[in-house]
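Revision sheet: C-alpha cells.
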Amino acid sequence: MFNIEDAKIQNIDHLGIVAGIVDSIGLVEIINKFVPQEQGEKVSAGHVVKAMILNGLGFVSKPLYMFPKYFETIPCEHLIGEGIKPEYLNDYKLGRVMDKLFLKGLSSIFLAISLNVVQKFKISTSTSHLDSSSMHVHGEYKASFPEVIFEKSKSKNNLKKQRDEEREVENENIEPKQAINVTYGYSRDHRPDLKQFLMQLISSGDGDIPIFLQSASGNQVDSSCFGEIAVNYKQQVNFDSLVVADCALYTEPNIEKMSGIKWLSRVPLSITEAKQLVSTLPESQFIECELKGYLYVAKRVTYGGVEQRWLVVQSQERKESDLEKLSKNIVKSFENAKRDLKKLSLEEFACESDAVKALSKLSEKFKYHQVAESKVITVKSKKQKLANNQQATVYQISATLTENEDKINQDTLSAGRFILATNVLSESELHGAV
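Predicted:
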C-alpha cells in the first residue's frame, strides 16, 4: 500500500523537456553504436553524453569533479536512464568517454545524429549553409595537446585499461587525431587580445538545424578550407543540396575542388572582373526583382575554369547609404589631399625633375581627386646657403586639385551593388531573381 510519507519530490525544471528531446532524436543509441558499452560498465557512453547535455543546459557552471553533485538534487534515473546513479558520472568516467569520442571522430558522430534528426522530423535539405565562428578563450595554452589522448591515472587497473585501448586503436587502424591549435587569429568576437578556436558549421535552410560541425585551429582562414569542408560534407550525405556560403567560399582552388557540388556564394569585389562589372553596368540594364527594393542583372561568366551564373544585385536601401558615405568620403579625401599638397609645396628640391616626381608619387595616393594644374617655380632657399653665404636656388611645386570624375562615377554606379554566383546554370532549377 502506498504511503505518502515514502514519497520523494524532486524538481526537474526544464530538464524533462531536454531529456525528452534527447530521447526522441536517438542520441544515446547512436553514440552507443560508435562507442559500445563494455562488459562491467555501469553507464554507457550515450548516457554520459546525455548527462553532459542536461548539466550544460542546467544553467550551472561548476568544475568537472562537481559533476555527480549536480545530479544528486534531480531525479537522475528518471532523466538519464534506469539504474544510473550520480556517483557513476564522475570525472574519470567523463574523461574516458570524451577520449573515446575524440578517437572515433566527433564530426562523424555529430553528423550521424543530425541526419537522424533530419529524417525523423522531415527537415528539408535543399540548401545547406556553411559558415564559421570564433570562440575566444582565457588562458595561455602554451603546449599542443598530444595526438592521441587517453585518461592518465596512477591506478594499475586504469593503466591496464589504457594499454588495452591503445592496442584496440592500433588493431582497428584508427588514424590518430590531431588536436586543434588554440591560438590568435581573426576574432569575430572582437577580442584580438585573446586566443581562440573556430567552429565550422553547416546548417539546413529549413529551420537552421545544424547538420555538420567540426572544430578548427584559431588561425585557420575560411577561404583555405571552405571548399574542402563542402566536399567532405557532400561525401557523407546522400541528398542533393545547394551549398550556400559567403565570399570565403569563392576562390579558384575552392571552385575547382567543388566540381559535382551545387553551390551559391557571394563574389568578392576584390576580383578584377567583379569590380569592373559592378562599376560599369548602366542602370538601364537592371530589371525589377521579386523582392521589393532590389534590381538585378544576370550574366554568364567563366571563372576558375567553371561556367557559372553571376547575379549582379542592386539594393536601393543600400545604395542610398553607400552614396551618403561616398559624399562624405569625397569631402574627407579632398581635405586630406589639399593638406598633403600644401605640405609638398613647402618642400625644397634640388632640381625640377625631383619636384615633378614627388608630385607624381603623391597624386597616386589621391582617391577621388587629381592634379588639375601644376608648375615648378624657382625660389631662394630658406634652409640652404652657398659658400659665399648667399641663399641657394631651389625648386618647389605649385598645384591645384580637381575631382576625378571617372573614379567618382565608378563608385557611384557601384553603390548598393553586390554579386551572387552559382554553378547551377538552369534558371528553372534555381531562379535568377532569387
